[in-house]
Amino acid sequence: MKTLLIVWHSRTGGARQMADAAAGAADDVAVRLLPAAEAGGADLLGADGYIFAAPENLASLSGPMKDFFDRSYYAVGDRLAGRPYGLMVCAGSDGAGVVRQVSRIATGWRLRAVAAPLIVCTGAQTPEAIAAAKIIPADALARCAEMGAAIAAGLAAGIF
After folding, report:
1. CB count, 10 Å around CB of 8?
2. Sign of the dihedral through C-alpha 137, 31, 33, 57
3. Which of 19, 23, 86, 130 fits 8 for a cystine, CB–CB 3.0-4.6 Å?
4. Which residues of the chain have pLDDT under 50?
């Protein structure tokens, strides 16, 4: 059975909700849902495809998610080449910085993007709104579930 690894980080719950929605819709594959602080190179090597779910902090990838990539990058080298991935970003208003960062990392690993990046903008712009717990709308969670289902189906069918 193929394995889909979903690595996430979230301080306010938004990216976690997105990761959970993707995991819940991924049928016919084994799903490993790991917080970024617990994931590493061995987890990446043990999976057939990936979804990364991260918040945007100050127009960049969150620190713990960046730490995951930093700790894992050289440990896996080019051994992930050709494996599929998708990216989900929980952002206040933009998310493009995270997409750029993860796309560059994925290029270095020679991963293959099999879904367009999914950015959910919460509109949080004040310090209070940024720090507050997030509730991701149902339509956005449905799009996360669609990504999880599509990547899982492609893995299960041997398309990627």
Report:
1. 27
2. negative
3. 19
4. none
